[in-house]
Amino acid sequence: MNRKTSRGNRWGLALIGSVLFVLGGLVAARGLGGFGSAQTPIVDGGVRQFFAGSGPAIWWVVAIVAIVVALLALRWLLVQTRREVTHRPIRLERSPTGFSEVSADGVADAVAADVASSPAVLSADAGVADSHYPPEVRLRVVADERAPIGELRWHLSAIALQHLRDALNSDHVHAVARVSLEPPPASHRMVH
Amino acid sequence: MTAATGAGTFAVPGQRPAPPPPEVRGRTRIADQVVTKIACCAAGEVPEVLRVRPGGGTWRSPSSDAEVHGEQAAVYLSVSVAYPSPLREVAARVRQHVIARVAAQTGLDVTHLDVTITDFGGDLS
Fold first, then answer.
1. How many CB pairs under 8 A join A and B?
2. What tens digit of pLDDT does each residue of A90-130 get?
3. Are B111 and A102 inside 8 Å of each other by CB?
4. Who among A97, A107, A163 is closest to B111 (CB)?
5. What percent of chain A has pLDDT over 70?
6. Which of A99, A101, A106 sits opposite B119 (nearest CB)?
7. How far is A172 from chain B (nearest CA, A)?
8. What CATH number belongs to B31-123?
9. Residue A35 has pLDDT above 70, yes or no
10. Taking the domains of chain B in order of start, what are their residue ranges?
């Protein structure tokens, strides 16, 4: 699941929650006698008359609305399988006599190793977001909380991403880095 | 034909007909594995290439392979290169060198060549 899917999930769940909340409130109000007596049926004569007077076309509208809702729900289900990173190779070039491509995992490993070479970094992981050229890179960095953040930023932009730009022959490589700060492991702590 | 000598006569074998030229006396077929080997060696000669994956890989870790069809060959190479070398240029150099080397050593025309960079290693600097 990628960030776009997570954002969609939040909006979808908020929408459904709001609808259910409003419906629940209406039902509760009805039970408490807010809209007439709780003993009278909800589908009364007026509703029956509306459907009877609209003719068969109303049922076609209901069916179409139900199908649209079902398709939206199916699409929502399918986008859950979208992943933040891809493992498909990145196409470098294609010609009538063959193609050249590079493994997305290979690129991710190389970038992660470059990032992890900084003394400020405790661990690093990378992924390639899509197989287009140049690819977008996602970095997850665990840095030493005592390390200057400027040094880490310099290392990312001037070493790790510069190497990637050199490798891809591209002036611009889009990258998203999520940095979390943690205390260093006990074996790395200085004892005074 | 007979020849006379002091001791008697003996038969001299007749002149055999000239053999056909060498190029029509059979057929030379270059196996796929030979082309694979030549292509792998040629790819390994490109300075930025650290390793060439030999045959026998899977779809997740592709390997190098070649197919010979008559006078033409298709080559599939999986290589590991130094990081951060310019990938497009390295792939183009591999392509150029492998095509030239296979043609020089076998006379085959490489009509299709795929280059897959599977991983990186070392430091170019």
1. 68
2. 898 888 889 999 999 999 999 999 999 998 999 999 998 87
3. no
4. A97
5. 94
6. A106
7. 15
8. 3.30.70.1350
9. yes
10. 31-123
Residue-level length of chain B: 125
Element (H, E) at A176: strand A175-182
Pick from A10, A169, A8, A4: which is nearest to A90 by CA?
A: A169
Residue burial B3-34, b: 16+ Cβ < 10 Å; e: rest: eeeeeeeeeeeeeeeeeeeeeeeeeeebebeb
Q: What does CATH list as the number for A90-188? A: 3.30.70.1350
Chain A contact set for B113 (CB, 8 A): 97-98
Residue B59 has φ and ψ, to the nearest 5°, of -70, -25
pLDDT at B125: 47
Query: How many other CB atoms are found less than 10 A from the CB of residue A179?
Result: 16
pLDDT tens digits along B29-86: 899 999 999 999 999 999 999 999 876 555 556 788 999 999 999 999 999 999 989 9
> Residue A115, class by beta-carbon neighbours within 10 Å (0-12 exposed, 13-18 middle, 19+ buried)?
buried
Q: Are A97 and A16 in contact (CB under 8 A)?
A: no
